[in-house]
Amino acid sequence: MSVELRSKSESQVCTEGDITEKQHSSCWRKWLLQTLSEEEFSCPVCCDIFRDPVLLSCSHSVCETCLQQFWETKGSQECPVCRRISSRDDPPCNLVLKNLCESFLESRSQRASAGSEICSLHNEKLKLFCLKDQQPVCVVCQTSKKHKNHDCCPVDEAVCDFKNKLKTSLESLQQHLKVLEEDKQACEKTAAHIKYQAQHTERQIKEEFEMIHQFLRDEEAARIAALKKEEELKSHMMRRKIEEMSGEIASLSDQIRNTEKEMEAENIPFNVSSTLKEVHHTPKQHEKVSGTLINVAKHLSNLKFRVWERMQKILQYYPVTLDPNTAHPRLHLSDDLTTVKLRPQKSLLPDNPERFDVCTYVLGSEGINSGTHCWDVCVGDSELWVLGVIRESEWRKGGNFWGSVWRLSYSKITDEYWTQCPGYTPHYFTPTEKVQRVRVQLDWDRGKVTFTDLLTSSHLHTITHTFTHTVFPLFCSYSSSPMRILPANTSVTVEQQI
User: Fold this and answer.
1) Residue 419: closest CA among 375, 381, 465
2) 471 forms bridges with which residues in the sheet?
3) CA dihedral over 127, 129, 135, 139, signed as positive or negative
4) Which of 373, 362, 359, 326 is nearest to 475 (CA)?
5) Closest to 387 in 3D by CA, of 365, 363, 368
6) Distance between CA 245 and CA 286 in Å, rounded?
């Protein structure tokens, strides 16, 4: 870069003889900084203020780093401005330009720190705002090549518009912060509920297993008692036989001793015939009785299976259990998840996506997408109840989701029974007796939902539909009277393989 003086001469900046050489140099530098624009202090490669400029043989100046990178890219030592080949591998540093650039940066920094209302290039007040470049400008900047033909407005108007935009953005941020805080509180409540669920479920598991353990302990005690009883009976029988044979052995031993004494005597006894008769007496023969040993097979044969078979009498199987994570906050579920009734007030439960928030509904814990399924429900004296199935993908917030529910309903207020399915008007009917137990049978493959009165074994209604999605059993009870899912009959059978 070559710095050319414009119309002014050095004598116009300072008068010779009135200042020292040092002051002369300072005035000269100050005049240059005020006269030259930022573009004239900019590197032609990086377009930023020169950093360690070097002077090429063609008189152009470039940042040392920019020049090396340019040469590496081009593969030749040409000038980035005029493309002339440089005669030197290491061009000298342009100290004059370097000092001027440092002074320019220092001056701009001082002006910026002194106040942002002064233009760093033209030392004029920043009264305008360039809407295109989004920066304050002075009246000289407005007519310069950089901002020519750009729309400008007074700084005050730009500040007002900027504050309005900031206000709008701030309100949006504040609203977002509020939502985040509410979501955080909801997550904290959910975390607390998860901890409660885990503790409550753990307690229920322990109680269930304690019941099983107690049954096994009682069963073990009963079987050991039966073993001890058999042992006592058979041991007593053996003791009696042993005592009987011990008496016979003692009697025979005495007879043998007496006979041996008579044989040792010198005189022959006069009752020889009697003695011979006693000696020739045949001892009593004891028959061996079968079944005297412990019947080990009776106690151990298929022990685990027979214990499990007996366990069926105390265990109950429910074809459907309730999912507490779907229950409306006003519903109370039993610990075994088979009974539901209405609470007086809502519980503080997480508003998770699976939960109903308007209608007092709860779903079964497992979805159905094939086969035939059946479950029995005791509705009792509930004032309002609903039984049926609902599509899994149905949105559960709000109360408008009858487009995917197949149901049987009852209202005590109107004393009416009706069925309803998607796309059809309700079907009202009057049963012969009040319905208290209902069997819901779903044939997913054939597309049928059948409702039966269990007490009278009478068919109530059948809904036909072609199912294409997974459905869940649906339950609704708007009464403090409990609605109970009834256990299914179970049996143990053994199949013989031929």
Assistant:
1) 465
2) 368, 391
3) negative
4) 362
5) 363
6) 9
- Angle of CA points 199, 200, 201, to nearest 5°: 95
Strand order in the sheet with 416-420: 361-363, 471-477, 384-391, 405-411, 416-420, 427-429
Nearest to 298 by CA among 234, 220, 227: 227
Q: Residue 70 has which token pair? A: 């340019």
Cα dihedral 198, 201, 205, 206, rounded to 10, equals: 70
C-alpha span between 215 and 212 (Å, rounded): 5
**Do 126 and 119 form a contact (C-beta atoms < 8 A)?**
yes
Element (H, E) at 254: helix 155-264
Q: How far apart are CA 214 and CA 210, in angstroms?
A: 6
pLDDT of residue 19: 45
SS3 (DSSP) at 376 = strand
Burial class (CB in 10 A: 0-12, 13-18, 19+), 24: middle
Answer whether residue 51 shows pLDDT above 90.
no
Alpha helices in 265-325 (DSSP H): 272-279, 296-300, 303-311
Question: Tens digits of per-residue pLDDT, 350-393?
Answer: 889 899 988 889 999 999 999 999 999 999 888 899 999 999 98
Residue 322 clears pLDDT 90, i.e. is over it: yes
Which among 406, 490, 492 has a CA at the least distance from the CA of 441?
406
Q: Which residue matches tokens 């036989």?
A: 241
Give the mean pLDDT of 468-493: 89
Beta partners for residue 378, in sequence order: 437, 484
Distance between CA 339 and CA 378 in Å, rounded?
9
In this structure, what token pair is assigned to residue 446? 């054939």
β-strand 331-333 against 152-154: which pairing, if any? unpaired
Which residue in this structure is represented by tokens 């890219």? 73
Element housing 372 (H / E): strand 372-378
Q: What is the pTM of this model?
A: 0.61
Residue at 90: amino acid letter: D
